């Protein structure tokens, strides 16, 4: 189920928007009448996304660009703005991830995720600034619970996404006077996505346990995230900036609780206060 908000004639640019959650966001805005630009590294993903978005009937542009290449990101914005005018809504969601313990991770393995997620987000925001509609633009960074809940095997992604969320806050300070709002969305585990496939527990029993650890007892859907993006980009969120908005069925609360409860049990066992 998707909410209904009118974005007719608005230009939405989704970086990393050719697959998964970000593509779902692009589709949701296309259904609300927006002119949609999607960009990512792989030509085949750009072509497939372009074809599917075009079927929704509105104006679409697909651009091939790697967020690690500052100049290529700049060229992508120039092309999009030439076609559809200033960007009303920018979604920055390009990311890479894999599971690996820090002690086994190579320098390049750590760097590649920081380069895509954090430096790439800076490239996108920095190059977008001159092309955002002022006043009125809304920017949304897609982060993850790793940004505020330390998670094993996720040293690279945790560090990178925490940096992204701090960029959100700093730029809310710096760009607020231009009439630009900027917020982060932190999705929980979203079924049917590449991130879910890579990071979710491998066995059925472990997945069931992970699902029941979510207070709302279900994994998320791409529509859950797309609806939040529509809301945050809309005038209904006109005074929200610098916020980190989890969309996770309460999952982050539970993850934070687990170690605290374990510490509490240990303290109770020794009879000493934690
Ligand atoms: N475990 C440990 N290290 C890994 C790894 C894994 N599963 N996958 C990649 N690496 C390391 C590589 O060994 C390499 O380090 P090295 O040069 O020291 O050997 C480094 O990471 C870069 O890998 P490479 O494959 O050259 O990077 P890339 O730029 O082609 O791809 C990735 C980037 C690795 C993030 C790739 O998984 C990707 O493109 N992901 C995008 C999709 C995605 O992750 N979606 C989910 C988002 S939540
Ligand atoms: P996904 O489908 O792999 O999406 C990542 C997108 O980024 C792809 O379109 C990819 O396209 C693009 N991309 C990757 N590297 C890029 C680069 N260097 N330059 C430009 N584009 C690049 O994964 P997803 O699971 O939907 O994740 C989307 C976002 O949600 C990510 O920010 C992720 O961290 C976040 N998130 C996901 C979950 C989840 O459960 N899935 C949970 C929390 C947070 P190309 O390969 O064509 O470049």
UniProtKB/TrEMBL annotation:
Record keywords, A-Z: NADP, Oxidoreductase
Listed CDD domains: TER_DECR_SDR_a
An example Gene Ontology molecular-function term: 2,4-dienoyl-CoA reductase (NADPH) activity
EC number: 1.-.-.-
Keyword Ribosomal protein: no
GO terms (BP aspect): fatty acid catabolic process
Gene3D superfamilies: NAD(P)-binding Rossmann-like Domain (3.40.50.720)
PANTHER family in the cross-refs: PEROXISOMAL 2,4-DIENOYL-COA REDUCTASE, PEROXISOMAL 2,4-DIENOYL-COA REDUCTASE [(3E)-ENOYL-COA-PRODUCING]
Family statement drawn from the similarity comment of this UniProt entry: Belongs to the short-chain dehydrogenases/reductases (SDR) family.
NCBIfam families registered for this protein in UniProt: PRK07576.1
Protein name: SDR family oxidoreductase
